Amino acid sequence: xxxxxxxxxxxxxxxxxxxxxxxxxxxxxxxxxxxxxxxxxxxxxxxxxxxxxxxxxxxxxxxxxxxxxxxxxxxxxxxxxxxxxxxxxxxxxxxxxxxxxxxxxxxxxxxxxxxxxxxxxxxxxxxxxxxxxxxxxxxxxxxxxxxxxxxxxxxxxxxxxxxxxxxxxxxxxxxxxxxxxxxxxxxxxxxxxxxxxxxxxxxxxxxxxxxxxxxxxxxxxxxxxxxxxxxxxxxxxxxxxxxxxxxxxxxxxxxxxxxxxxxxxxxxxxxxxxxxxxxxxxxxxxxxxxxxxxxxxxxxxxxxxxxxxxxxxxxxxxxxxxxxxxxxxxxxxxxxxxxxxxxxxxxxxxxxxxxxxxxxxxxxxxxxxxxxxxxxxxxxxxxxxxxxxxxxxxxxxxxxxxxxxxxxxxxxxxxxxxxxxxxxxxxxxxxxxxxxxxxxxxxxxxxxxxxxxxxxxxxxxxxxxxxxxxxxxxxxxxxxxxxxxxxxxxxxxxxxxxxxxxxxxxxxxxxxxxxxxxxxxxxxxxxxxxxxxxxxxxxxxxxxxxxxxxxxxxxxxxxxxxxxxxxxxxxxxxxxxxxxxxxxxxxxxxxxxxxxxxxxxxxxxxxxxxxxxxxxxxxxxxxxxxxxxxxxxxxxxxxxxxxxxxxxxxxxxxxxxxxxxxxxxxxxxxxxxxxxxxxxxxxxxxxxxxxxxxxxxxxxxxxxxxxxxxxxxxxxxxxxxxxxxxxxxxxxxxxxxxx
Amino acid sequence: xxxxxxxxxxxxxxxxxxxxxxxxxxxxxxxxxxxxxxxxxxxxxxxxxxxxxxxxxxxxxxxxxxxxxxxxxxxxxxxxxxxxxxxxxxxxxxxxxxxxxxxxxxxxxxxxxxxxxxxxxxxxxxx
Lengths: 739, 127
Fold this sequence. Notes:
The complex is a heterodimer of chains A (739) and B (127). In chain A, helix 23 runs parallel beside helix 25 (600-610). Chain A starts with 5 loop residues before the first helix and ends in a 5-residue tail after the last strand. With 739 residues, chain A is an alpha+beta fold. Chain B has a single domain (3-121), classed as Response regulator (Rossmann fold, 3-Layer(aba) Sandwich), CATH 3.40.50. Helix content of chain B is 43%, strand content 20%. In chain B, strands 2-1-3-4-5 form a 5-stranded parallel beta sheet, sandwiched between helices. In chain B, helix 2 packs parallel to helix 3. At the A-B interface, helix 13, helix 14 and helix 26 of A face helix 1 and helix 4 of B.
């Protein structure tokens, strides 16, 4: 029983095109009737020639199946099939034979035709053969499709091999390292042709820069059957170079035999060039002696920074550290300022405003005892760059130059008034080794010396005395025993002086200058010495000698004016040059000298407390430049010295408050005082209207030193205080008879 | 030719700054002694530029800046400042000040900041 699914078969045959060749009309009609059930398109031919012509009239592969009789007039079926096979040797053919005719059968088999049926045609045999043919056709179709796929794959593979050849620098060598294959890319990069390379040892491209050890390493690996990967510098035919990352492995043939080595390489020449450039830049930055670093808006330092940064911050790494924390670790305000500025810069889009913020940042800081100068630069994308420069040495040099200038000033002051300096020196040395027991007197004298030395702009002794005064004022009584240590500081200044002016300068004995004229008169008097009247003559000569002890008061006072000038410069106040008004030839006995010297405190006071700063004077509609005047006169047996300024006058309330504060007077005492008495409080010890104690004034002992000297000479002081307009001091000193 | 309003509580600074600005060819149209005065004088004169002190009585420079900027957003104001006021200057800049001059004031500093605020005037050489 034939088990055929008709529906399925018809579905598969419906679209097939058939050429049916049969000369017998009866057979034709019968067969066509059956075929009509299966095929939609059936062409009919009546003999071999007719069939062949119809076949030829259609394009190749038009008919899916040719069904043909054998015995036909004009051309039989076998010959027709032979001709058809010449056109298409894969044509499906089904032969219908009348008899069991073995003479044709052999020919059919030779032609490769396996499908035939006998007449009269039974439906069963026809269907059986049709099914065979259709299955065969379907199989063939599938094969054709697969073949197309394979062809496409082959094509892609060819392209791949082609691009491998073009782009991959590949080579193979035999076991001895002789080249057996190179890719096109290899030829291009090395500059050699395939013919030049094949059979040559691979070291033809070896660059002299490559150390032998690198290749030993490679041979060890690949001979042990391992993959070796490394960066290699190679030599081109034109002697230039290229860098590759080489992957070299042992190479085996199909039988697993080790026959050589195979290598592929990546061209890393540009990467190497970039690396070299980077390392050159890094080298430059690392050796610039400056710290370069960058950070983002989170203040975290980026990974790249110059080596100098590490020495500036004295650490091993600064990557990811907060820049504000390490740059301003010792200054909270600067740290805040930086953090504030960065967040404000990030908030604005205006570059100009960003720059303004940067310009407000601290330009210097002391980091680990080094003076570091800081420059800020804006980078794209809210990044910031810092340039840090160690300026410690520059600063030291600046300090040295400043010191040198100070030494110069000191030398000029001392050399231009040698006598004066030698006297002070003598007095000071005397003071140090015969320190007064009374602390008050000691402080007063010490203060006067400080004023005198400051006037000479002395480098070491002035700050030394200042420090000692501060300590004694804090009741550190033990300092009292250390007064002699001041001599060490004094000696430092003396060393500087003698190194510049010579040793003789300081070694001169205590001398006074005698003018030639006086000496001549004295000589004359001695020559005329009359023995009979010796007593009278001697007293005359002694009187002359006594006169040598007299000195010009003008010179004494004039020394103070330079002190006042220096003080004004320090306090940034402006004063007109101080003119000393009085008889330039007036001399006074040296015993009045301590008094005149003590007046230095008054000059200083006038500048510090009297004269206002420029702005205040301007506001008060006064001349911006202050005036200090000094005049002296001898009337009868009295010497009068008047010192005045056009400053603010003495603030009586402030003086009174200070007196209470320093426990000089109690409140009730002050309440009972009149203005004059209150004003006189400025002469009390430990009193000053200046709240700050400066190095050259403001101890509150200066004025009391003057009062002390005036009292010793039984003199008087008159103060005329004019608030807002100035103050005038008049000193009246009685001179001994005959002076 | 710029019309300038000078604001400072210190007479000497007002005088110095005015003299310097006039020497350089600018016109000082008014001077204010306080922030409060600056606000009303700004309205009256509508100057091209204001130089504003920071620490002043009655109304400080930053408050005055904010008040002026609120009504006249295009007002061009620069701050006059001294060392140690950097944080205040930053506050002022964030509120719309266009620049600052660090005391002591001199021609170079004035030129620098005016060139930045008015780039359209071209490069002005100081005298």
